[in-house]
Amino acid sequence: MRTLECVKLIAETIALVSAANAAIGQIKTLAGHGRDLASMGKQIGLVVEAEERLRAEGNSKKNSIWTKAFGAKDGATVEEFFQLEQMRENRREMESHFKLYGRPGLWNDYVKFETELRVKRRKDAEEREKARRKLVEGMYLAVGTVIFVAGLSVMMWWAYNNRGIFAGL
Question: Do the Cβ atoms of 19 and 42 come closer than 8 Å?
Answer without folding.
Answer: no
